[in-house]
Each structure stands twice: as structure tokens, then as C-alpha cells.
Amino acid sequence: MAYQLQNEQLGVKIAELGEVYRGTRFDGAGFITSVELNGRHQFCVPESLMPGSGTGGIGLCSEFGIKEAIGYEETRVGERFPKLGVGLLTRPDEAEYRFYREYACARFETQVEQKSAQQICFTTQPADCRGYAVRMFKNIEISGNQLSVTYTVENTGSRVISTDEYSHNFLGIDGYAVGPDYVLKLPFAPKIWSDEPDTLEGLVFEGDHVTWERRPEKDFYFRMDTFDGRETPWLWELRHRPSGLTVRELSKLPLSSAAVWGHGHVISPEMFVAVHVAPGERQSWTRTYGFSKSKAE
Q: InterPro entries from the entry (predicted)?
């Protein structure tokens, strides 16, 4: 049964460990599968609408080290390497690390404490792997129409932890398909590019706005200039114009990169934070989301 947070405006469901997601990509602690506003409006969707396809992502779920796993290059075939939020993974062969590949996994031990109807905390215990070891805390809390997720990475090992983290933000408002009714607003007019130009087809970029000509029939993806999110009032805003429903990420983060991925039912802004923690030290950051409904356009 899912954990739940509830106040007068928000209802949040958080999956129990291993209940919904059993893969080796996303952080299984604090896996937010549903955010409901005013008892009726839904914001979270699965990565794929086809059963059994995709990686199993849903809602607000984070990942560490999408491009490069900690210590992977020095890991011999058959040895383990750490994937924060997941466990110690086994390197099966000489191939490069791939975030979408499933690996044999010895999962980290995690304790859960529901402190109130508005707050829950997940504590993931360290497991030493050739000097890499991390204790991680994830505190999830709601207040009014805002949801906050605070991450704390504590290096309990003897080697530096260097990786990154982002929340995949699988968003689709009240089941409305992606298309001209949606607008993604950014705090400035960014420079946009993609390694695969065809992933930009059907997207319309107008200053600080991104819209869609039609419902996408394939994945779309683009990157943008990195910006210091501590100096902007918010990082991004996704609005469904006919309903007036909006979700905005209000986080104050020193971003290391930024991108947007999606498909015909899902839009996922991805804001990355560099994680660099020396032995005996900690690093903390908070992601905050605001959910609202205003007059339709």
C-alpha cells in the first residue's frame, strides 16, 4: 500500500519500496506516483502507456548518474559499482555503462519514517564498495499547494562521490494529450539544441515559451543553455491552457545542465544538479513544486 501525504489542497502518493518500481535506474526511495490538486486534478503519468514497455518511471522520480556511474570505469567484470538510490550493481561485461540497462543488484537498505500527514522521510544506509559509501536522506513534505523534496548525500566512505541528480518529472495534466493546448514556459529565452535534430520536429520555440504544433507521435527531446536556478524565480512552468492547470518548479538550484524529454502523453523537464561530496562531508538541495488552477485561456 502506498504512503500518502494529505492537506487541504494536495494529496500525494508515494510507492512503498519495490512496490511499483523494481528497476536499477531510478531512486526507489520516495518514488512519487501521484499528485492530486483539490481532490480532482492529476499531474503524474507513467513514462509509457503500453504495459511492459519503457523503464517503469512514473510521476516524480529521481536518478543519479545517468551518464556515468560512480567508479564504473575502474570496476572489473563481475565486480560491483554503486548506483545512488538503487544499490550495488554488478558489471556484466566490458560494455560502457548504460542507464537504461538492467544490472544485477544488491539493493541498499532503506528505512521509512512518516513524521506526519504532511511529511515523510526515507533514510538509505551506506554499503561500502571499494571506498565508496553514502548515507542518503530524502525528506518529502507538503505545505499548501507546494510539494518539496529535500535530498541530503552524506559521504561515509574514503573516496570522493562525484555524480549528478535530476528528477525526471513525468507530467501530464488530467490526462490531456500533449499538443497546442500545452505551453512550457522558461525563466528566459534559452538557446535550444539537440544531438538528434529530428527530436525537435513539431516543437515551436517563441522566446521563453515552448509549444507543440500537434500531438507528438514519437519522442521529443532538446537541451538548453545551463542557467543558475538560484537567481531565477522558478526553473520552469507547465500549463494546460484550456483548464488553467499549472505545475511550476520553484527550486533554487545551481544547475549543471537542463533538458526536456517527452512523448504524446508526457512532458518531462529535467533539471540537473552536480553532486560532489568529499569524505566526511554532506551536500543538500531541495526541489519544490507548486500546483495551481487559474482562469483558463
A: GH-type_carb-bd (IPR014718)
Question: Structure pTM?
Answer: 0.96
Domain count for the chain, please give it.
1
Q: 236: part of which helix (H) or strand (E)?
A: strand 236-240
Q: How far apart are CA 1 and CA 14, in angstroms?
A: 9
b/e 61-74 (16+ beta carbons within 10 angstroms → b): bbbbbbeebbbeee
Q: Which residues pair with 246 in a beta bridge?
A: 239, 292
* Per-10-residue mean pLDDT, the chain, length 297: 94 94 95 97 94 87 95 96 98 96 96 97 97 98 98 98 97 97 95 92 95 95 93 96 97 96 97 97 98 85
Indicate which CATH number applies to the domain containing 183.
2.70.98.10
**Sign of the C-alpha dihedral, residues 69, 70, 72, 76?**
negative
What residues make up the domain containing 239? 3-293
